[in-house]
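Review session, final week

We close the course with one last complete record, chosen because it touches almost every idea we covered. It is LRC18 protein, a protein from Herpetotheres cachinnans with 256 residues. Go through it on your own first, then we will talk.
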Amino acid sequence: KGKGKGQKGKVITLKIAKNSIRISFDGGRRLDLSKMGITTFPKCILKLADVDELDLSRNMLKKIPSSIQKFQKLRWLDLHSNQLEKLPKTIGTLQNLFYLNICNNKLTTKNLPEELNLLKNLRILNLGLNCLDSIPTSLGALKELKEIGLFDNTLTTIPNSVKKLPKLKKLNAKRNPFPDSTKQEEHADPTKGIETLYLVQEKDLCCSCLKMCQDERDKLNKLKNVTPSPSKKPHFPLLLTPNSSAKDNQEEWRLR
């Protein structure tokens, strides 16, 4: 049983989960199960559903169950750098959520639940490094949203309902195939706010994302190395010809 089904992940017991609870900077209780090698959502953590924050980032999760709705107190949910292809509709029941990071997964527009627009208190949403070819206009219902990450997808446009959110301060939509450079600049930062930079370590990126980043880096390096070659070799006679004082002291310096 279980053969041929891929890598078997670490089994998280209730004891391990309890020992992974941390107190966050604002006094909330955070269940931190990041970088644990988890391949399936640990059902035992449903017994700890009263935590304020849940970090399951940098694992190998392919699915989040609908039972995530039991975490009704949740304000902060980090699922970045997994292998998620879709999210459950019940995520829309987490009405206290103000931070949701689902960056660096395999989410498609089709599998982005419409119920995301029910997260009325959401302030930060990161959808970067996924497979999104469009953004649902319904996300314009998230009136409290201050920051949204849409970078490294396959977007050709961003709906006005999202760009014109009343409290939006940062929108990062870099490296999307927008029709032309002027529009790309407009999409990248329509709020003229401070650009957000998201850093991840190479080991936390999937193979395709890592290759994409490395290719971009190689392109930049090539551009840096292509410098206009002067028609003549630079000639600095004053530097090549020693002045009288230097001539007089040449032998002395050689001996030293």
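Two points worth writing down before the exam:
The CA atoms of residues 17 and 45 lie 7 Å apart.
The beta strands are 21-23, 29-32, 53-55, 76-78, 99-101, 124-126, 147-149, 170-172.
Good luck, everyone.
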